[in-house]
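job 3f2a | input accepted
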Amino acid sequence: MEKKTLRSNQGIRAQEVRLIDEHGVMLGIVSLREAQEMAHMKELDLIEISPETHPPVCKIMDYGRMRYHEQKKKMEMKKKQKTSVLKEIQLRPHIQEHDYQVKLNNAKGFLEDGDKVKITLQFRGREISFAETGKSIVERMIVDLAEVGKVESNPKLEGRRMICVIIPVKSGQASAVKSAAPVNQNPT
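job 3f2a | predicted structure (188 res):
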């Protein structure tokens, strides 16, 4: 959907307009010609802000400055947006502990950055007979990532792969997850 451009100066078609000056003070209903003369005397533009009303609302302001502020506001909104990217972590059924920790740290980093993580456990050859071992590795990864992410889709076996998707937990939910975790009262 394309945003309509505002009419200004000679592009305004109404005979009468409800006029607002450059300080935001309502001047009332005046003829279009009179409003254009006021804007010209102040070396500013007459801009139609609300064309749907009768008579349309017009404001005396600098058109270039208004466009600049609109673009600046749009850029600020764009900066604040975060697109979620799907990152993949690949595991094997007989993964060594150090390799597992490296993959776990990578997944935590992705989740903390706001990205989704797809955990893929690949079975090769006869490894498919160790499906339970593979499932336990994926479930361990889910438990280890519980403080920064939650499961979007549970682990399921698709051919020779076991796939699970984890999404990041919002900051407010992360503290709730930590407080819900049981605290060991008896240190040994």
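job 3f2a | The longest helix spans residues 63-80.
job 3f2a | closed
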